[in-house]
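Hey, quick one: can you model this chain's 3D structure?
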Amino acid sequence: MSDIKRIELGARMSQAVVHGGVAYLSGQVALDAGGQSVTAQTTNILGRIDALLAAAGTDKTKLLSASIWLSDISTFAEMNAVWDAWVAPDCAPARATVESKLAAPQFTVEIAVIAAL
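Sure thing. Here's the predicted structure for all 117 residues.
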């Protein structure tokens, strides 16, 4: 059990778990998402991801995979504009983006990533 590191551990879930040289981040949504645009929510989420990756001992240059959920796929280009500016050059992960109903109506974007240490 000592080779597993849990970051921001809660009763239901951890925001990140590190094991075997890999950091697994939970799906991240924007804090104070109510009324925020997809651009603002994506920016907030990617900042949260940067912080969690740093806490795990890694960064976005080591991304392996990303899963993105949008409440409305018509916002794909808006989300991608923020993503494309954030992702490290020549370090794009494998990625899937789908339309899905999210946990609460104020959330329009959710992103989960996996990164090497």
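One thing worth noting: The chain has a mean pLDDT of 97.
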